[in-house]
Amino acid sequence: MIQSVAFIGLGAMGYRMAAHLPKHFNDVYVWNRNSEKAKQHASEFGTQAVDLQQAVQADIIFSCLPTSQDVDGILAQVSPKKGSIWIDCTSGVPDTAKTQADYLAKQGVYFLDAPVSGQTIGAENATLTFMVGGDAAAFQRALPAMQAMGSLIKLVGSSGAGFAVKAINNMMMAVHLCAAAEGFTTLKAHGVDLNEALACINASSGKSGVTETALPQRILNREFPLTFALPLLAKDTGIAVDLIRDARLSAPVIGLTQSLIQAANALAEPNSDFSTAVKLYESWSNITLK
Ligand code: NDP
């Protein structure tokens, strides 16, 4: 039985994810580096803003930080309760998940790498997908806590497997983003109505998550709302490229996409959404996707 749950890292994802936990569990602790956000969360959702040492006394401890390195920084400061399960929802590095799992196992704590997809809207609606790596028994015990925030929760393998699936997913999304930018720039150059073209493509075999959501809701309307930062996508594509290199595979499309996303990130304004990567193509062609 899970009595207490903690959430560490109340960013774009964590703030919304942790909001669901008080509906299912009596004691929900939240901690954020900027403590004002934790206090705000407590007053908005009935969680308890606590210090880090208290947060890690929960039965289940979630973390959702930008990188695995940030999670390591937290792990070095705390002694979680023996028998607890640490569920890291960061889109992290597979090899680091293995060292984090070994490090926590020495303290009698289980570690699951459990990155999520579904964006901030999925976090808000508790419809996230969790892709989980780690011990099967710990996964079963932790399932109700993940079910409070997600609608599809899969154990995909041992430690690191969840992070690997997430990195490849985001790399595939980046490939689709670059393909859509190239395709729609070409259509605009030929005088095609982009909104009508989008309607056709979304009813045809060229559609993707990018054409179904990012193009209409972020790019063609020129809104580019910041919900998933471009540097975070660049981090994920980097993890995917490392996975491919470690497996000694050749993946030319992925390699090229990684270079394009890094270039777009280098040119982007601070606090840019991932969808602004299309501006790289716009700067080359002098064509605006609208
Ligand atoms: P944000 O940048 O919005 O939030 C980051 C959070 O981490 C903040 O609470 C921040 O605290 C905290 N933080 C940053 N650095 C440190 C540190 N060194 N020590 C302690 N706390 C730190 O990120 P997101 O919520 O967008 O993303 C979090 C993770 O989820 C990333 O790995 C991302 O790739 C992944 N993800 C994001 C999605 C999205 O749509 N945004 C979708 C799916 C996955 P503070 O408030 O003090 O700055």
UniProtKB/TrEMBL annotation:
Any Gene Ontology biological process:
organic acid catabolic process
* Start and end residues of each 6-phosphogluconate dehydrogenase NADP-binding domain: 5-156
- Coiled-coil zones: none
What is annotated as the active site? K166
**Pfam families linked:** NAD_binding_11, NAD_binding_2
Where in the numbering of this chain does the 3-hydroxyisobutyrate dehydrogenase-like NAD-binding domain appear? Answer: 160-281
The record's listing under InterPro entries reads: 3-OH-isobutyrate_DH-rel_CS, 6-PGluconate_DH-like_C_sf, 6PGD_dom2, 6PGDH_NADP-bd, HIBADH-like_NADP-bd, HIBADH-related, NAD(P)-bd_dom_sf
Domain of life of the organism encoding this protein: Bacteria
Q: What one GO molecular function would you report for this record? A: oxidoreductase activity
**Keywords on this record?**
NAD, Oxidoreductase
EC category name: oxidoreductase
Q: So what EC number does this one have?
A: 1.1.-.-
**UniProt record similarity statement:** Belongs to the HIBADH-related family.
Protein name (database record): NAD(P)-dependent oxidoreductase
* Provenance organism: Acinetobacter sichuanensis
